[in-house]
Amino acid sequence: xxxxxxxxxxxxxxxxxxxxxxxxxxxxxxxxxxxxxxxxxxxxxxxxxxxxxxxxxxxxxxxxxxxxxxxxxxxxxxxxxxxxxxxxxxxxxxxxxxxxxxxxxxxxxxxxxxxxxxxxxxxxxxxxxxxxxxxxxxxxxxxxxxxxxxxxxxxxxxxxxxxxxxxxxxxxxxxxxxxxxxxxxxxxxxxxxxxxxxxxxxxxxxxxxxxxxxxxxxxxxxxxxxxxxxxxxxxxxxxxxxxxxxxxxxxxxxxxxxxxxxxxxxxxxxxxxxxxxxxxxxxxxxxxxxxxxxxxxxxxxxxxxxxxxxxxxxxxxxxxxxxxxxxxxx
Amino acid sequence: xxxxxxxxxxxxxxxxxxxxxxxxxxxxxxxxxxxxxxxxxxxxxxxxxxxxxxxxxxxxxxxxxxxxxxxxxxxxxxxxxxxxxxxxxxxxxxxxxxxxxxxxxxxxxxxxxxxxxxxxxxxxxxxxxxxxxxxxxxxxxxxxxxxxxxxxxxxxxxxxxxxxxxxxxxxxxxxxxxxxxxxxxxxxxxxxxxxxxxxxxxxxxxxxxxxxxxxxxxxxxxxxxxxxxxxxxxxxxxxxxxxxxxxxxxxxxxxxxxxxxxxxxxxxxxxxxxxxxxxxxxxxxxxxxxxxxxxxxxxxxxxxxxxxxxxxxxxxxxxxxxxxxxxxxx
DNA sequence: TATAAGAATGACAACGTTGTCTTAACCGGT
DNA sequence: ACCGGTTAAGACAACGTTGTCATTCTTATA
Lengths: 330, 330
Known about the structure:
Number of helices of chain A: 12
Number of strands of chain A: 12
Largest interface: A-B, 50 and 50 residues
Strand order of the largest sheet of chain A: 2-1-3-4-5-11
CATH architecture of the largest domain in chain A: 3-Layer(aba) Sandwich
Strand content of chain A: 15-25%
CATH class of the largest domain in chain A: Alpha Beta
Shape of chain A: elongated
Oligomer: homodimer
Number of domains of chain A: 3
CATH superfamily of the largest domain in chain A: Response regulator
C-alpha cells in the first residue's frame, strides 16, 4: 500500500480511502490511485485491515458440519455459501465426525482466526464453553440439532412430527407391526425421531414391540444387519421405518437380499439421490437441507447486522414424499 | 495479551514466548503465564500473529471446487480437510459453478485473506492471472483438470484411459454400436473422455457414427432426453457410455422409461452411491476422489514445507467396476 | 474583503502480535 | 576478584492497515 501511495504521489491514507470507497477523495486522485493499484498488482490485505478496523470484522465465518462429504451436510454448506458469498463473506468448513473433542478443537481454530460468526451442527451436548466466545461478540447459530447449556439461535426441522407422519402413513396402509431402525441415541435428532415413532404408535393405540426396535446403528452395513435380524423375528414386521438416510439404504439392501423389497413396506427419514429409481422407489420424509442452511445463514447475518433481540428458535417442517415403498400393503 | 502479561507480572514478549513454545522461558514464569491465560480466557489472535510473523503463514488454505455439494467435490474436500487439519490448517471452500468469473472472484477473496495455498478445480482456461500470486509465494495445486497458461503442480486422473477401458469392455461384450453422452466440451475432463471414446473405437477399427454422440449435456434431465433420442436412431445403439455421473443417471432413467434397461448396456464414468442397488447395477469407471484430494493436499504441503523443485504432474488411474449393466450383451 | 463552513488530504497512532536487540543475572574457571 | 560465556527477560519497532485529528484549500456568504 505504501508503494501504491508513492507511485500515485498521495498519502497512505488516501489509498486506504479509495480502497474502502470513502467519499472524500477527488476523482483525480482516486483514478491515479486506481492506476497505481493496477500497475503494481496490489492486493488488499484483509487480515491487516480487520485487525485495525473498529468493527474488527474478518468477513469469514466458521461452519461445523458432521462431515463435509455427506450429502445432507454438503447441501447445507452450499446454501450457506450462497448467502455468505453474496456479502463477500467466506466460509471455513470443518467436519466433527460426531466427535465432541473434534468439535471443540475445530471451533477453537475458527475463533482463533477471528471469524465473525459460527454455524454449528453440534456433536457434543454441553456448549457452555462457547459463552465467552459469545460474550466476545462472535455471532452463532445452531442448525439441525439443539445447543446444550447455551441460549442461542437455533434452526431445526420437525423431527418428531416428520417421523409421526411417516409412521401414521404406514399405519394408514394397514400396517400394525412396524420395525424401527435408529441412529445413535446421543444425537438429538435421532432421539426425537425415535420419540416420534413411539408417540405415534401410542397415539394410535398400537402396542410397541421392543423386539422390533434397533437403535444406535451407524452406517449402511450395521443397518443392513439389524434390518435382516428384525425381519427374522416372529411374527415379523410388515413394514420398516429407518430413521436416517444411510439406515434406509441399509434396510433396502436387507430387503433386497431377502427378496422382500416388494412385500415389506419401507419409509425412511431423509431423502437421497436415486431414491426414486430404486425398485420400488423409496417413500421418505424429506428434510430440506438447503432451506435449513439458508435459514441459519440468514439468521446469522441478521445478528451480524446488529440484531440484538432474544434468541430465535426456528423449526422447519418436513414433507412426506410417497414413491411406492411406503405404500406396500401388509 | 497485554492483560495476560500484566496479570502474570511479566512482559508481553514473555507471554508470546510461552504461547509459541519458545524454549527460553523459566518453568516458573511459564506456569504463571499459563495460569493467567486460563483465568482471563485469553485467545491467541492468529490474524495478528500471522501479520507480524516473518513467514506470514495464516494456516489457512483456499479450496475451489465445482460445487461443494456435489459428491465428487465433497469427497475431495473431505480428504483435503483431513490432511490439512492434521497440520492445524483450516480450509476455505468455495463453489465455482463452472463459471470463470466466479472462479476468479473466489480466488481473489481467498488471496486477500492471505491463504498459504490454493487447491483449485479450475472452471476457466487461462490462469495467467495467478502468476503474480505465485510469485508472491502462494502455493497452489490444480486438481482433476489442468491449468491454462500456468506451469503448476497438477493431480489428474487418467480420463482418456479410463474411458477407453470402459469402451473396450463394451466392445469385448460384442457391442459395435455404442452411444456416447458427454458433458460440456469446454471442461477438459469431458473433452479427454470423448477423445478416449473416439480413440478406442478407432483402435478397434470400429466406425464412429456421429448420430450416436451427444455432447455438451449438463445435468440429469438433459442426459435423459438425449439418451432417449439416441435410442430412437436407426439402427439404435446396443450400448451407451455416459461420460459423467449425472449423465449416467439420466441415461439410466431413459432406459428405464423405455423399459430397455435390461436390453441395452450402460457404462458410466464416475461411481455414485447406490449404483450397486439399481436394476441392473451400474458398471462404472470409478475415480477415487479421496485419493485425488489426498494427493493434491500432500503436494500442496510439500510446497509449503519449502519444496522448490519443478512442477509435478501426477496422474491417478481409474478402475472399471463391473456390476451388471455393462455386461448386457447385444 | 474578510470570514465561516465545508471538502479534501495527510500525519500519526494504534490494532495484537513477533523479530531483534539489549540488559541483567548467573555460571564455572582462573 | 575478575572474566567470558550462557541464559532469561524485557524494550522497542514493525507487520499492513484504518481511526482520529490537524491542516490546507475551496467556496459561499456577509
